[in-house]
# Entry
Amino acid sequence: MAMDPLMTSVAQAVRRRAGSGVGAPDPDTELSSLGLTSLGVAGLLVDLEAAFSLEFPADTVTPEVFRTIRTLTDAVRALVTPSPN
# Structure
């Protein structure tokens, strides 16, 4: 499955934090298996907030949200897409 532009942007941010040697990761690969440490995840959070001009609510900063590129993209998408009233 091809990645959409948002997922591609999230994947690029993950690659920058994961360090050298990480190519184009599968969207369902565990971030921890890419070498992302807890400090790397914290940096990724800051990077994504700056890149997308958003703030992750505390209840979304969970291991489930930061598990894969796909789960992280879903969370970012929910934060940047206005909910219908």
In short: DSSP finds three helices and no strands in the chain.
